[in-house]
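JOB MANIFEST
job_type = single_chain_structure
chain_count = 1
residues = 512
[input]
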Amino acid sequence: MNENLYDVLADGFPSDRARTVMELEDGSHLSYADLEAQAGRYAALLIALGVEPGDRVAVQTDKSANAVFLYLGVVKMGAVYLPLNVGYTGAEIAYFLSDATPALVVCRPESEAALREIATKSGVPHVHTMDAAGGGSLTDAASDLAPVIQSHPAAAGDLAAILYTSGTTGRSKGAMLTHGNLSSNALALKDLWGFRPGDRLLHMLPIFHVHGLFVAINTTLANGSEMVFLPKFDAARALELLPRCSVMMGVPTFYVRLLAEAGFTREVAAGIRLFVSGSAPLLEETFEAFEQRIGQRILERYGMTECGMITSNPYAETPEWQRRAGTVGFALPDVEVRVADENGRVLEREEIGVLEVKGPNVFKGYWQMPEKTAEEFRPDGFFATGDMSKIDTEGYVHIVGRAKDLVISGGYNVYPKEIELVIDALPGVAESAVVGLPHPDFGEAVTAVVKRSTLDGGEIAEEAIIEACTKDLARFKVPKRVFFVEDLPRNTMGKVQKAELRKTYGETFRAA
């Protein structure tokens, strides 16, 4: 049996391939036949370039229909898709290429010169371009090729994608996701969230991320549905499109911005049967304001790069089982969750510990990091997520904090250590601590607390630190504020007490 993700998704495509798969920003439509042909042409080009099953294909491009078709073409011919955030800097890209050793890199045309130099140093044999409209050297090279029809035979355990997630030591880890991981998630969500014929998804998420690519797109394709496919979120544009859609997926920021629009009314949202929120904690006040405004409850779910979706609040609400603010619901079908202490002892209901998960959605391990992989898995196969959680008496999962001080800002994972290394290297800085503070728009705002160095004059300013971070880090990792202290608070073991910093500066953005 061929368990290639492409074929699993294609089983759900409409029998009439002339049906629309995407409506684009300009109002034009692409069909499922267009998808099959273009994905097949990209697969043919990869084969012609010498890309083999199991080879990595790194992609750092703007969101476009062809970028989605490229993803599908990569999976179809058995290669491993490696999406990269368009905000990553040259230094970050150099690490990913040297670590993943892809056979092909696809980038924006304006990045080609710099990226080609990096690729050459990393031993990457091929570099192609794709622009915001989906054109470029890759599409040109594929245009005259006969589409590949037959997908590469793949087992559920074969690699389909690698997504890098930052490490607390500053070294990013490549989470290896299999065909089975991705297909099990798509099929489970299609059923769990009640996808039906005629559904139309409003898609305004980025596609280098689990949420926008694997959750939104895979689930929609598995149902043979249509997407209204926009380059990015725009609240005013969303108000125009919502009446023609039935499902919307977004990060909490989207819903905060919709609530700020006077035109966001019950009438505008009346046709939406499901609003989904994820990638960052949804504040209870946002959940409640949303319900009060339009009479619907947002469905909050929880997942992570290594596992896709893990839990979800119920789609069909009953008096007993409802979407509850401050919770992420229950484990998906065939997925097990539990809460354990740092030694792996399973805890009782209402006790706080690390959430652990086991199921077909759980990744294969970290790319070329067998020791790190072994550290994160329990002997019985449960993966320790690092998220501090509890399961209440009714079985709802609550994410109450994050181990290792992970910050989630605007839906993106940010690990403080990576930013602290940049700041600590600056003249005038003795030491820094980076934390996430509550922010009404981003969920959490990256914030740095710095002790100045007297050896360098002790005069470094907030602007200088932010400017330095902007040069070396993706924009979403750059601190929104920098505070200066005489000394960082520490416990008796000398460890910086970040909880104290979050308490001290916790109202910084609430008052903004």
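[summary]
The chain has 16 helices and 25 strands.
Residues 49 and 126 are 8 Å apart (CA to CA).
exit_status = 0
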